[in-house]
Amino acid sequence: MAFRAHHRLFLSYLLLVGLLVVVLALGVEATLREPLLQQAQDELQRELALGREIFEGAAGAEPDSLARHLSQLTGHRVTVVAPDGQVLGDSGVEPDQVAGLDNHASRPEVLEAVSEGRGAVVRYSTSVNAELLYAAALSETGAVIRFAVGIEEIDAAVARVRWQILQVGGLALVLAGLLSLAMSTAITRPLRRMRDVAGAMARGELDARVRSSRTDELGELADALDGLAGQLQRRVGQLEADREEMQALIDSMTEAVLAFDADGTVRRANPAARRIFGLSSEPTGRPPETVARQRGFLEMVERVQRGESVSPSELTLGERHLLATGEPLPRGGSVLVFVDTTELRRLEGVRRDFVANASHELKTPLTVIRGNAETLLDEDLPPELRRRFTRALHANAERLQSILDDLLDLSRIESGGWKVDPEPVSASGLIESAWEPFRPEASEKGVSFRLDVEDGIRAIQVDPAALRQVLANLFSNALRYTPEGGTITAVVTSAGSDEIVLEVRDTGSGIPSVHLSRIFERFYRVDPGRSRAEGGTGLGLAIVRHLVEGHGGRVEAESELGVGTTIRIVLPRRPRPPEHSSPSP
Question: Any bridge partners for residue 146, and if so which?
C-alpha cells in the first residue's frame, strides 16, 4: 500500500508524540530517581553522623548490641565493621550469626569510608537479595559504622511517576492523533486539489483551475499552477489553431501531399493525394505500396526516406503525368508533393493541335486565293476561265472570312466577352427561324425537316441570339452529312421540372464512336477532306458547347454509323452560370 502525503504527516505526528512519551518515560529515572537517591543518601549521611556520635560516646559497649540500638533509633539496618573488615555487629542478623558473615573489607562503601572517612553507594545485596543504599563512616576507634536502607520506595515512586507519564502520554497521543489527522488533512487538501487539476490538465482539460484563496505558500503554488494552466491553454490553443490552419491549407491544396513516418508508413495524405492516387480511404499507417506500386514512385519514396532531397521529377502513373518533389523531415520521415500536369499536358497538346489545325485551315484557302490571283494576272486568260478563277477566289475568301469570324466568336466567348442575356422565347418560333436559312438548300437535296415540341412547352428562357447560332451550327452540320431524301428533326422535351432538352437528329452517315468524345474540340474533324470540301470550319461544335455551357447547360452526342447522329442539348429552365470555368479545348 502506497502511503500518501496526509498519511505520512499523520503518522509522523503520531510518531513524534509517541517518541516524546517514550523519552519522558525512560528519562524519569535520570530526572527523578537520581535526585531521590541523592536526597535519600543525604538524609542517610546525616543520620549516619548522629549514629557515629552515639557509637563513639558509648565506648566499651558491645558492638552488636550498639548496632541493634542504632537500628531501633533510625529504622535502618546498621552494621559495625572492624578495621580489618570483620563484622562486629549487624542489626539485620541474629547475634549468633554475626561471626559467620563475610569479611566486608572489600565492600565499596567500606573501602571509601576507610580511605576518605565516609562513603556511599547503591548496590545489590546478596544477603537480602535487593538493591540497597549504603552509607559508611569511619569512627575514631577505627571501626566503620554502616547504615543500609532499601530503595524500593524510591523505585515505587519512580514507577508511579512513569505510569502517570504513560497515561498522560497515551491521552496526549490520542489527542495528537486527532489533531495531526485534522492538520494533515487541512494541509494536503489543497495539494490534492492541485493534483486533481494537474491530472485534468494531463487529460486535456486545460480549463481546470485550483482557484485557491489561501495566502500562504500553498496558495502561491496554487496561483502559479493556475497561471501555468492559463498559459498552457493559450499556447495549446494557438498550436491547435496553427495546426488546423495548416491542415486546412494542406487540404485545400490542389497539389497532392504525402507525408511518411520514419518507418516508411504513410502519416498523412491530403484530399488531392487521395484523389490523384485513387485512394478510397485514409492511408494513414499503411506502407507506400498501398498508395501506388509504380516503380518510380517507390524508388522516390525510398530515396527521400534515406535523407535525399528529390528535385522536381517527372512521374507517370497510368494516364496521369505528375511532377514530384520530396524533402526529408528533420525528425525522421519525409514529405512528397505531386503536381498533376495531366491537364496541362493535354491542353498543351490541344494548343499544338489548334495551332497546327488553324494554320492548315487558313493555309488552304490562302493557297487557293494566291494561286487564283497569280493566274488572273495573266492578261491572255480566256474570259470564261477568268470568271471561274474569280469565283474560286471569292469562295475561298468567304471561307477564310467564315473561319476568322468563328475564331473571333470563339475567342469572345472563351474570354468572357459574351454574357448570357436570357429572355422568354417561343421554342418553336426560334427553331423555325433558325432553320429558315437552310430551307432552300434542304429542298435542293430533298432533305425534309420536322419539328416536335412537347405539349406544354411554349416559351423557353434563353439568349435568343446565342441559341439561334447554336441551332444554325447544328443544322449546318446535319444538312452537310444528311444524304438526299434524309430527314432532320428538332425535338424539344422536358427533363423533370428544372430542365429542357433540345435534340437535333439527322439520318446521315453517323460518327464512329471513337470520335464522339472529341467532336466538340476546335478544328476536330471526323472526315477532314469532306468537311473542307463542303465548307466546314471545324469550329461550329466548339462554339455550340461554349454557348450551351454559358447557359449553365450541357451538350452530348449520340451516333450510329449508317443510321444518323443526335446532338442533345440540356438547358435549365432558368439559365445559370456554369458550375465551373476551366480552359476548354
Answer: 79, 136
3-state SS class at 461? strand
Among 550, 526, 522, CA closest to 538: 522
Q: Exposure pattern of 477-500 as b/e (b: 16+ CB <10 Å)?
A: bbbbbbeeebbbbbbbeeeeeeeb
β partners of residue 202 = none
Residue 112's closest CA among 97, 122, 102? 122
What pairing do the DSSP bridges indicate for beta strands 334-340 and 320-328? antiparallel
- Sign, CA dihedral 78-81-85-88, equals negative
Place of cell 533509633: 73
The predicted structure's pLDDT at residue 415: 62
The answer to whether the beta carbons of residues 559 and 513 sit under 8 Å apart is yes
Q: Which of 95, 91, 124, 92 is nearest to 107 (CA)?
A: 124
Is residue 526 within 8 A of residue 517, CB to CB? The reply is no
In what order do the strands lie in the sheet containing 320-328? 266-269, 256-260, 334-340, 320-328, 310-317
* Residue closest to 62 by CA, chosen among 21, 100, 104, 91: 91
Backbone phi, psi, residue 507, to 5°: -110, 40
**CA distances for 335 relative to 100, 298, 304, 322, angstroms:** 114, 13, 8, 15
Cell numbers 429542298 label which residue?
443
Residue-wise pLDDT tens digits, 443-469: 999 999 999 988 888 888 888 888 888
Nearest-angstrom CA–CA distance, 32 and 13: 27
Per-residue pLDDT, averaged over 268-295, amounts to 86
Q: Which three cell numbers stand for residue 312?
A: 522536381
Q: Which helix (H) or strand (E) holds 507?
A: none
173 and 16 Cβ atoms separated by less than 8 Å? no
Distant-in-sequence, close-in-space partners of 145: CB < 8 Å, separation ≥ 6: 48, 51, 52, 55, 70, 78, 79, 80, 81, 136, 137, 139
pLDDT at 182: 73
Cell numbers 535520570 correspond to 30
Average pLDDT over residues 346-360: 71
Cα-based distances in Å from 272 to 242, 269, 474: 21, 8, 39
pLDDT digits (tens, 9 = 90+) for 256-275: 899 999 888 998 888 888 88
Q: Per-residue pLDDT for 358 more than 70?
A: no
What does DSSP say about strands 256-260 and 334-340: parallel, antiparallel, or unpaired? antiparallel
Flag whether the pTM goes above 0.85: no
Number of alpha carbons in the 13 Å side-chain half-sphere of residue 286: 14
At residue 207, the 3 state secondary structure works out as: coil
What CA–CA distance (Å, rounded) separates 387 from 523? Answer: 31
